Each structure stands twice: as C-alpha cells, then as structure tokens.
C-alpha cells in the first residue's frame, strides 16, 4: 500500500494502547479538535497597512470599478481606428498629451491622435492605443502604417473588479496577495477578528532559561523560545509565557489564571504517565474537560486537548521535537478554528521518498524532512532521517516540513508517495 492511501482511507490503523489510556488515531484527534474548538468572538477595525497576518471578520467588497476608467496599457498614441480610411500609412495630427494622473482635455476627433502614457485615461473617441515604437513622429504628426485592432492596449474600466464584487470572504487571512486585492478594492480599513489570546506554560523543574547557569541535572529551555517564536504572529496575542516548576500548587494557580485571560493555553511537558507529570491531575482539580489524551503518533504520543473554563488547552509533550511536530499538526489547525479562519487549501501535499523506509510499525510516524528537488516526473523528492529522536533539534534548521508514515507501514521503497506538510505555511 502506498503511504498516501492510508491517509486517504482516513485511518492510520493505529488504535493501539499505551496501557494507561487508549491511543486514538491522528485523524480522530483532529476530528475531536474540530468538534470541540469554537471560534473566538470579538472584532476590531484596523488600517489595511496594519492588517498583515490578520483574519477578516467581514467580506471585503470592491467599492468601485477597478480600474476606475479605461486606461492605456502602453506609452503611445490613442486614436479612433474606424477613422483610418483606406490604406495606410496615415498621418494624424497630435491634438493632446495625456500623462498618467491627468484627465483628457477633450475628445479624439476622427483622424487625430492623443499622445498618451501608460495608466492615463483613454480619451473619448479613441478605441485603440498604438505603442510609440510602432509609429514615426514628424513634428506634430504621428505616422502609422498598420491599422490597430479596436481595443488594442486599452485596460477596460471594471476589468479587474466590479462595484460590490466580493474580493475576499470573511475568514481570509491577509497576506501580501490579499492586501493587494483589498487595496484595489479601496478598503483603507478592514474589519478583523481580534487576535487570539494565547498563554504558554512550559513545565519542568530541570529547565533553565537558554544560556543561563545550570546545575548538573538541568537543561536549557528550548520550548519557550521555540513556541514563542511559533506564536509570534499578528493574529496571536501572546499574553503570558511562564516557566513553571513541576509543582501542583504552582501549576494550578498558573493554569487557573491563564484560563481567565486566554483563549488558548499551550502547555509543554508534564502530561505523560509518571508521578512527576502533574498537568493532567491539576486539570482534574480545575474540573477541566479533556477531549483526548494520547494519540498514536510518533513523536508526540501524550498530546492532549481539552477545555479549562472557557479556554482551549493544548498539552504538548516536553520533548522539543515532539512539541514542534505536535504544534504543527494540532496547534495550527486549532488556531485556524479559534481565529475563524477559512482554509481554502490543504496543508499537506504529496512528495516522493528519496530513500527507502524501514521501521517498527505501530504509531503514525512523523519525521522532519528536507525537499531535495524533483524526480523525472516532476514530483518533489524528500530526504529524512532514519529515526526520530524527540529530544534532538540540531538537524531542524535544514528541514522544510514533516512527512507522515502510516502506522501499519514497516517499509517503503524509494520513490513511494508520502504526505508532506511544509513548515512555512502558517
Ligand atoms: N513510562 C512512560 N514514560 C514515558 C512515556 C510513556 O508512555 N511511559 N512516554 C514518553 C514519551 S513518548 C514522551 S514524548 C515523554 C513526554 O513526557 P511529558 O510530555 O510529560 O514531558 P516531560 O516528561 O516533562 O519531558 C520530556 C522530556 O523533555 C524535556 N523537556 C521538557 N521541557 C523542556 C524544555 N522546555 N526544553 C527542553 N527540553 C525539555 C525533559 O527534560 C524530558 O527529557 O514521556 C516519555 N516517558
Ligand atoms: O511521543 Mo514521545 O514524543 O515519542 O518522545
């Protein structure tokens, strides 16, 4: 079976158990995310220049026709092609000069021409613009020997947008292309979903800020800077980043406070099965709802999702690579839902394996991968490690995204189709 078929069937075949709680499949986990997460309410109006990365609350409609008038697509001469009698060459007096931004001073009467520049309004009476390279100029006369087609080099009013036309739908995320369409539509200010308020809680007694002095059994904090970077987006307001000790009182207070202010609480670590994993017991004390805890995925098996008060909670594993992988698989779609974003395109696409895969089946395996170019059929090739170490991040900077190996797959030949999710599509 090809790797993609397992995903198309909607199953990873990984309803296995870790002994403590049953693991659900990645697809089922994503389904529950979609079932329980709710878009935030609250909107605000913002200048278009400050709206990059934000999500539209209302559609943007074109205010007027775009372009607003018939305009020239070339520097040249505007004339009435029907007034060119008989055979050329024709010698036409130039009666006006129209640069961009200037209004025409009058009609182009039959047998005359207006010198015109790219972007200038085509004068009444003219139905074609002949580029200046295709004519000769003799004093005040322009000489042409070929009859232009009516409409030549004229950009028609409303050719791009009609008044009232929906240019962008509610839920669109504004990048440079969307901003261009809004500007053309005359939308100086846009009505936006307010940013999603996110609080980040990184657990672990052993964790010290990156570069700080540390004891023999302590490590530097990778998750806070990594996830703060993931959360540095215009559609997110990162309201709090706390490095919390593995202590229930401390965690309970921090989570309760976060739940009052945040739309989404992201935690890392402390969600596995050990006595030192305090997040889930504390959630019990806070009477949180857990929609799933444990997914048949490698890395990131302990990933959990629920609700603390009105805030959504996404529990990422402590291992940094696991946290990153799980953020991309579950965190990004969760943010899409919370921010009311409409997704027009799939995040994943198909690529071919640049080398064979041999592995122990059981959990859907997700590996960071690097795009290597194209095969003879034009398909993208990926390279990836033979194993995943969920604590290692040194190889991450050279990778472009994640590949997905279905749970039941123990081997794949070089050239097998795999699903690939790029890192750079937020
Ligand atoms: N008996 C079992 N033990 C474990 C299981 C299991 O099923 N049974 N699952 C393992 C798997 S898989 C994972 S993943 C981890 C996840 O555990 P937690 O999410 O509770 O995370 P922690 O135990 O707190 O930390 C795991 C690991 O990551 C390091 N870490 C934590 N935070 C940071 C940080 N901010 N920066 C860098 N590194 C961090 C931490 O020191 C641990 O080494 O559980 C397994 N155990
Ligand atoms: O599920 Mo864990 O993230 O493999 O180390």
Automatic annotation (TrEMBL):
InterPro entries: MoaB/Mog-like_dom_sf, MoaB/Mog_dom, MoCF_biosynth_CS, MoeA-like, MoeA_C_domain_IV, MoeA_C_domain_IV_sf, MoeA_linker/N, MoeA_linker/N_sf. The keyword RNA-binding does not apply. Keywords: Magnesium, Metal-binding, Molybdenum, Molybdenum cofactor biosynthesis, Transferase. The keyword Metal-binding applies. It holds the Pfam family MoCF_biosynth. It is an enzyme of class 2 (transferase). Pathway: Cofactor biosynthesis; molybdopterin biosynthesis. Its cofactor is Mg(2+). It catalyses: adenylyl-molybdopterin + molybdate = Mo-molybdopterin + AMP + H(+). Gene3D superfamilies: MoaB/Mog-like domain, MoeA, C-terminal, domain IV, Molybdopterin biosynthesis moea protein, domain 2, Molybdopterin biosynthesis moea protein, domain 3. Residues 199-337 form the MoaB/Mog domain. Belongs to the MoeA family. PANTHER family: GEPHYRIN, MOLYBDOPTERIN BIOSYNTHESIS PROTEIN. Catalyzes the insertion of molybdate into adenylated molybdopterin with the concomitant release of AMP. This is Molybdopterin molybdenumtransferase.
């Amino acid at each position: 079976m090809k790797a993609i078929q397992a995903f198309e069937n909607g199953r990873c075949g990984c309803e296995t158990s870790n002994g403590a709680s049953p693991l659900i499949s990645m697809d089922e986990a994503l389904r529950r995310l979609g079932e329980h997460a709710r878009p935030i309410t609250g909107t605000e109006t913002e200048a278009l220049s400050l709206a990059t990365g934000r999500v539209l609350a209302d559609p943007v409609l074109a205010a007027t026709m775009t372009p607003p008038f018939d305009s020239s697509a070339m520097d040249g001469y505007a004339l009435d092609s029907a007034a060119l009698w008989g055979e050329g060459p024709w010698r036409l007096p130039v009666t006006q000069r129209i640069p961009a931004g200037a209004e025409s001073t009058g009609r182009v009467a039959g047998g005359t021409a207006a010198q015109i520049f790219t972007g200038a309004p085509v004068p009444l009476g003219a139905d074609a613009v002949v580029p200046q390279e295709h004519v000769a100029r003799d004093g005040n006369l322009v000489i042409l020997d070929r009859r232009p087609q009516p409409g030549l080099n004229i950009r028609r009013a409303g050719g791009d947008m009609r008044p009232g036309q929906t240019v962008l739908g509610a839920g669109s995320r504004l990048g440079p292309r969307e901003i261009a369409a809004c500007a053309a539509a005359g939308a100086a200010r846009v009505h936006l979903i307010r940013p999603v308020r996110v609080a980040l809680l990184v657990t672990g007694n052993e964790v010290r800020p990156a570069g700080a002095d540390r004891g023999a059994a302590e490590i530097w904090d990778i998750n806070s800077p990594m996830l703060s970077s993931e959360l540095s987006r215009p559609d997110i307001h990162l309201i709090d980043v706390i490095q919390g000790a593995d202590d229930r009182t401390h965690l309970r207070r921090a989570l309760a406070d976060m739940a009052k202010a945040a739309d989404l609480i992201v935690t890392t670590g402390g969600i596995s099965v050990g006595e030192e994993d305090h997040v889930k017991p504390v959630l019990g004390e806070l009477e949180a709802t857990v929609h799933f805890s444990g997914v048949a995925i490698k890395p990131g098996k302990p990933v959990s999702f629920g609700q603390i008060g009105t805030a959504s909670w996404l529990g990422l594993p402590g291992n940094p690579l696991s946290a990153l992988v799980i953020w991309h698989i579950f965190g990004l779609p969760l943010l899409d839902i919370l921010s009311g974003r409409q997704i027009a395109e799939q995040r994943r696409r198909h690529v071919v394996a640049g080398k064979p895969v041999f592995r122990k089946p059981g959990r859907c395996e997700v590996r960071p991968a690097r795009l290597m170019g194209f095969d003879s059929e034009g398909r993208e090739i990926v390279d990836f490690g033979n194993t995943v170490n969920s604590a290692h991040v040194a190889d991450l900077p050279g990778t472009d995204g994640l590949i997905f190996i279905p749970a039941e797959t123990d081997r794949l030949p070089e050239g097998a189709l795999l699903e690939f999710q790029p890192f750079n599509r937020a």
